Amino acid sequence: xxxxxxxxxxxxxxxxxxxxxxxxxxxxxxxxxxxxxxxxxxxxxxxxxxxxxxxxxxxxxxxxxxxxxxxxxxxxxxxxxxxxxxxxxxxxxxxxxxxxxxxxxxxxxxxxxxxxxxxxxxxxxxxxxxxxxxxxxxxxxxxxxxxxxxxxxxxxxxxxxxxxxxxxxxxxxxxxxxxxxxxxxxxxxxxxxxxxxxxxxxxxxxxxxxxxxxxxxxxxxxxxxxxxxxxxxxxxxxxxxxxxxxxxxxxxxxxxxxxxxxxxxxxxxxxxxxxxxxxxxxxxxxxxxxxxxxxxxxxxxxxxxxxxxxxxxxxxxxxxxxxxxxxxxxxxxxxxxxxxxxxxxxxxxxxxxxxxxxxxxxxxxxxxxxxxxxxxxxxxxxxxxxxxxxxxxxxxxxxxxxxxxxxxxxxxxxxxxxxxxxxxxxxxxxxxxxxxxxxxxxxxxxxxxxxxxxxxxxxxxxxxxxxxxxxxxxx
Length: 475
Fold this sequence. Notes:
- 50% of the residues lie in helices and 19% in strands.
- The model has no long low-confidence stretch (mean pLDDT 83).
- The relative contact order is 0.10.
- Among the domains are: 1-100, Alpha-Beta Plaits (2-Layer Sandwich); 161-248, 2-Layer Sandwich (Multidrug efflux transporter AcrB TolC docking domain, DN and DC subdomains); 331-474, Multidrug efflux transporter AcrB transmembrane domain (Multidrug efflux transporter AcrB transmembrane fold).
- It starts with 7 loop residues before the first strand and ends with a helix.
- Strands 5, 6, 13, 14 and 15 form a five-stranded antiparallel beta sheet that branches. The chain has a four-stranded antiparallel beta sheet with strand order 2-3-1-4. A two-stranded antiparallel ribbon has the order 7-12.
- The longest helix is centred in the C-terminal third of the chain and has 36 residues, at 439-474.
- It is of the alpha+beta class.
- The chain crosses the membrane at residues 311-330, 337-354, 360-387, 418-434, 446-470.
- This is Cobalt-zinc-cadmium resistance protein CzcA Cation efflux system protein CusA.
- Keywords: Membrane, Transmembrane, Transmembrane helix.
- One of its GO terms (molecular function) is xenobiotic transmembrane transporter activity.
């Protein structure tokens, strides 16, 4: 479907994995402030870093989501449009450490639910090791950045997680006569906290937890000095364990029995996912991946391919049913064939009008054409009926008599046909000038019909009588 302008943007920058909550909060507030102070069109800004308190939103701290709502367009700066506003925001929000992406709230949620990709387009890279996946994802990212149709592209930095490892020394633990659980419980309670009481405030309840102060868990040295109780007194944690930091994958994703890493892509305004995929495939054609590694496109292109596969069955079935209905209405195979095989001319006007508006092919456009075929079929059938009645009323059939009868039958259809054309145009043309939510889809459905009913008038009033005359003359 064409892009649906929800009149609300969602700004979704990402940071490297491993960012702290304080830094995530600072970046969220910074971007919120920039949006509020630099764009008078913005009504409200609401930013969120990390996940909500729900299992259905497993977002890391590195993922920031900011919902931007706008004032009525009558209060905007002169000449400002949604496209210009998005471009200005993108150029203003070039903050070190953030990689920007933009979408709409509803569309973004649907994309994430269906494919896991939160941008309009993406690539899923499959492989066996996290290290090689990160390496080749970076190569794909760099190649796509060179394409002019790319607004933003970034790969998951899945290998940039930092962990504190505590490797216990079994010999030392046995030497002091203690068990591992004592050390693990001390670490767990000291770092994560232990609930010791509950505060009741009316119907509300708040757990009260205690843990070590910040300075006692700030670095390896402080952590190593944490005291562990033993039968021989207290001993530092460093006695029983080796403490060190290690870089490792911060998030693990798997699909189809393989590890996977996502590359998120936001095409520029006016670049369709299909066109981007075509150009992107050329840029990645000579990228050699190790055995067992491969990538596939996801997001809008995935939906379009699925929809096109369905249309390969739906369109022929629709045309077949249309032909059967034409035959049942006319009770003549000859007349049914005349109507059916002249119908493509009705689509000429729709195609030309789409080209004038620079509308891309989409499912909504297909729906418009199918509706157009229905209207053109109806008027063509009525024209054939008028012509049959005019020719049937002749007492003597000569070339001139038949020609005159067909002319009179066609003339009788001028006024009804023009009334049909103007009624359809009067109902559909206003759609082309609205800009509310959903107008993009409605315009793609209306455009083929607006252009098509004009060429359909030519089909009904000129082509159908001419073809019918040729068929009658042969008889």
